[in-house]
Structure prediction request, 211 residues.
Amino acid sequence: MLRTIALEREKAALHGLTIGIVETLINAMEAKDVYLRGHSRRVAEQAASVAEEMGLDADVVEDVRLAGRLHDIGKIGIREDVLNTPGALTPAEYAHVKQHVQIGMDILEPLRHIPEALEYIHDHHEHFDGSGYPRGRSGADISLGGRILTACDAFDALTSRRAYREAFDEKQAIEHLRTEVGRLLDPAVFAALERVVVRRKTLTFIDDRHS
Prediction:
């Protein structure tokens, strides 16, 4: 019994260490780009809020939050001149940016103890109508966590300033995303996101309070 408890503690410590290392890489990456700074944390907090709003189990909410924190790690392999392009990307640049999902999956591959979160990360650029990447999944074939990340990632991108435009306010962002329901976004996920935004309801997790 004591050995089992000790092994569980060791596993928990290893889990915390590996996640901490990846988060350190993400923070270092975001520190180099004023337009990305804080993006992963905001997406994580809002995605967890949306998952909770949808009535998902606490374990699923936590997996969604974790996936939000780690979802953009693959951008560490994308050229800075492409990430900071002040305008529309060329087809070649867009193809390069799309590689960040697979790069991220390759980086996170050793974290096999968080399979659900990894699946959500894999799906965070899939579109509800099947036009996304990297696997071209659609509808319910996209993990629910992936669909939540897609919505929250898009919302944060719209409400953050970019080199080529000013930030949308929250109302403008929601109205813009409303036009994407059924194409980019799952209708049920969008409805939950809208409720969260309207009520300004964002969960605060213990690890965030002390970070």
Summary: Confidence is low (pLDDT under 50) at residues 204-211. Residues 205 and 211 are 10 Å apart (CA to CA).
